[in-house]
Amino acid sequence: MRKVMNALYDGAAALAALCLFGLLIMVLLSIGGRQFHFYVPGTDAYAGYLMAASGFLALAHTLKRGEHIRVTLVLAALSGRWKKALEVWALAFATVLSSLFAFYCCRLSWQSRNFNDISTGSDATPLWIPQIAMGVGAVILAIAFIDELILELRGQRTVPTSEEPLRNE
Fold first, then answer.
1. DSSP 95-108
2. What pLDDT does residue 67 have?
3. Which DSSP string corresponds to 131-159?
């Protein structure tokens, strides 16, 4: 099961990387269009859709690698069962919030499909299409938080630490 979960997180991250590549193509098309006097309709809108998709699809992978920003001031002061209790509470709360977020992201996409909602730009894209990536990313993030909570309750959770030194710029 662990291999399946890790494959899900890595697959979402790979899709996020593809979206970033698509974003690069959209930006280059826009720049090239200005330089060579041609217009590709919808490049700005599609760049925005791809940027949002890459952000949402990368959330779970980032969480599992320990790269989300965490405020550990209180956690560092605690030890033993109090530290574990706070970790469980934080993960349970994050699981509830991410599950609600995933539900409403999916609901938004479904409602956009039912209402035939389209973008107001010249591309007239049905909005449920780019919203699917947001819903999928939110669902995978909720799954990742559930996974983290279960691992913490079982005592199997390891919090990865970054090898990079802390930078305060």
1. HHHHHHHHHHHHHH
2. 81
3. HHHHHHHHHHHHHHHHHHHHHHHHT----
